């Protein structure tokens, strides 16, 4: 269950990171409220997950999910560059996440 909560926390981290773009500097009330709610929910779920998971592993996986998801959505939604180097770096982050999960 802790791994599922950690994954969900990571997905919510993606949500709030992407949501920041839509808040327009926190001037749009609905996107701002949704982004803030995602932030709180993400951290709460991370806090619950670290009750049973190693802190360093959980935090690294949480930020890794957020980083990879945000970069991918940045490419898809905002036409950010999808260079070979960026994609290779994403692959390295995924490899690190998998390694940490395998050793936890």
From TrEMBL:
Gene3D superfamilies, A to Z: 1.10.3730.20
GO MF, one example: transmembrane transporter activity
Manganese as UniProt keyword: no
Keywords annotated in UniProt: Cell membrane, Membrane, Transmembrane, Transmembrane helix, Transport
One example of a Gene Ontology biological process annotation: xenobiotic detoxification by transmembrane export across the plasma membrane
UniProt GO cellular component terms: plasma membrane
InterPro entries noted in UniProt: EmrE-like, Small_drug/metabolite_transptr, Small_multidrug_res
Signal peptide extent: none
Compartments, record wording: Cell membrane
Transmembrane intervals: 33-50, 57-78, 84-103
Membrane topology: Multi-pass membrane protein
Domain of life: Bacteria
Family: Belongs to the drug/metabolite transporter (DMT) superfamily. Small multidrug resistance (SMR) (TC 2.A.7.1) family. Gdx/SugE subfamily.
Name used for this protein in its record: Guanidinium exporter
Native species: Metarhizobium album
């Amino acid at each position: 269950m802790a791994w599922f909560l950690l994954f969900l926390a990571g997905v919510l981290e993606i949500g709030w990171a992407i949501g920041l773009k839509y808040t327009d500097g926190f001037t749009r009330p609905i996107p701002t409220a949704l982004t803030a709610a995602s932030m709180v929910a993400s951290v709460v779920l991370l806090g619950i997950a670290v009750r049973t998971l190693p802190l360093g592993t959980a935090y690294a996986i949480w930020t890794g999910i957020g980083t990879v998801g945000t970069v991918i959505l940045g490419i898809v939604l905002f036409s950010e560059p999808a260079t070979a180097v960026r994609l290779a770096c994403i692959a390295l982050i995924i490899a690190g996440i998998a390694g940490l999960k395998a050793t936890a």
